[in-house]
Amino acid sequence: MHLYCIGEGSPTVMIVGAAFSFDWGLVQPEVAKWTRVCTFDPSGNAWSDPFQTPTLIPPSQNSNQTPIEKTTPTCTDRVDEIHRLLTKMPIHGPYVLVGFSVGALWERIYAARYPDNIAGMIIVDHAFLPDLGKSAPPHVSPSQGSSHRYSPPVLLSEAPIVMGFEDDSNFSRLPARDQELHMWALSQHPVRPGPEMAADCFALISEVTGERRYPLGDMPLWVINTSNESQDYRALQRKLLALSRTSKQIIAWHSSHMVPIDEPDLITRAIREAVERERRILEKP
Description:
With about 280 residues, this protein is of the alpha/beta class. The protein has a single domain, classed as Rossmann fold (3-Layer(aba) Sandwich). About 30% of the residues lie in helices and about 15% in strands. The protein contains eight helices and nine strands. It has helices at about 30, 75-90, 100-115, 175-185, 195-210, 230-240, 260, 265-285; strands at about 1-5, 15, 35-40, 55, 70, 95-100, 120-125, 220-225, 245-250. Helix 2 (about 75-90) packs across helix 3 and helix 3 packs parallel to helix 5. The longest helix is centred in the last third of the chain and has 20 residues, at about 265-285.
């Protein structure tokens, strides 16, 4: 898998998400000014190797009576990829973990499995599954206004989710080379997360956290969300803030779902707070 790290210092910041590694061109270079920060491309995306297929899912793990062939990565696959990367890195934890969109689901499962590896967590506009019995607010495209106050993509489509960075009005803010790489990666038919993976992730999260309040204990947590007014979306933010006793909410008032290019400074500041907090702890005698 392709891992891209720049900067020096600790704790190391690891960014995970459904976006490509070079989509963080407005965040990663800024963070690298004061600590090491890494992004990666999940298997089947950009410079990483293809997802290894086929593999068989045994009857005990599916509703059929016979093994079935798995052709796309599951949520567990993505979490395992993150763990392998961190295990093989010549840089020791604990890490500050940043999860964007579907990546926030991977981040939460990883933190539940390996809490000692995490110094702090930042959730950037967590993906969500709305209540299909309710009517969702109408979607407004970025070209219809500059306020960005429209619903982020939700996991409803039967097709794989496309993050749509290139459709955001602020895509041009990325360095020209990163824009070119993004369009190249899209042309390679990347393996993108779909609704089945999302459902799998939510099921795994339910398994590892249950209905416990503060399942992350006192782990430092920053939750960045947009001004989306959907009831389901707001309910999710309340649940996310209740994951830890030391959580902090940051609202990206001027962002679409694409906070990394709409308001990257909010992410950078949250990362800095997490890094400095961990450094103060390490400096104590």
